Amino acid sequence: MTIERFEPNGKRLSHVLVHNGIVYMTGQVPVDRSQDIAGQTQQLLERIDHLLAVAGSDKSKILFAQIWLKDIQRDFAAMNAAWEAWIPQDSLPARATVEANLAAEEILIEIALQAAL
Question: Which of 7, 44, 61, 68 is least buried, going by the fewest C-beta atoms within 10 A?
């Protein structure tokens, strides 16, 4: 059994790993947390593109995405606008979006996903 791990974060986690033809990506949060939901979402989508490429995949192969929003009533529409502009319409993954109390007050969104190679 081979597991490839990429971009470790200290002693806690690998940001992305590959096992059995599946890419597993840990929850990603924005670096620049001063931005609104559109800016934070765009940051994460760019980071996801990077991590998928590191693992040998891309956004057209996303199988499932889990999205957490700090305030779903306020931010759902703007997050969806950024997502819809980014994701190929012929490659729509399964997805769940929920409201959550995220790790820091200024984090408005977190995204984790699984993709095929």
Answer: 7
